[in-house]
Prior knowledge:
InterPro entries: LOB. Helix content is 74%, strand content 0%. The chain has seven helices and no strands. By secondary structure, the chain is mainly α. It folds into two domains: 12-79, no CATH class; 86-161.
Amino acid sequence: MGGSGTGNSPCASCKLLRRRCAKDCIFAPYFPSDDPHKFAIAHKVFGASNISKMLQELPVHQRADAVSSLVYEANARVRDPVYGCVGAISYLQNQVSQLQMQLAVAQAEILCIQMQQDHIDQQITLPTTPLLFDEDDEKSFLLQNNLPQFLNFTPFNNSSSVNCDSFKKGTLYGHDMVS
Length: 179
Ligand SMILES: [Zn+2]
């Protein structure tokens, strides 16, 4: 518990490792003494000597980014010991694909509405025979109501695929029992 005697307070790394913080301490620029948790968690996951080696292999201008990446990964590893930051990455990738799905559905809906709008415009500007009107109205009505549902239920909806499987199994079993 005695004073260091050097005058300067040691960085968070040297404080935790209980050693003298040299003037050229590799940790000092990235692990200030006022944030001891930052080094503690990186040390716990990677080890001080590994962090030191990694920093020495990098040019100085890349070291700050490397440290923030190491600290992020260490925090993720503590939160999720099995997957670490891979857990967060796959969660976010999953969200991206779900949002891309929603976007595709929204774009399909926009397309349907535009087609219907075009059709209404055509009706106003170019009157044709009443028989053709009815046919086209029916088509666009079906398109507008079925396409979004089709997109919603087909690719990622588990309950619908379960239903399909159980339906197929049911018919297969039925067929087996008959033959
Ligand atoms: Zn130090």
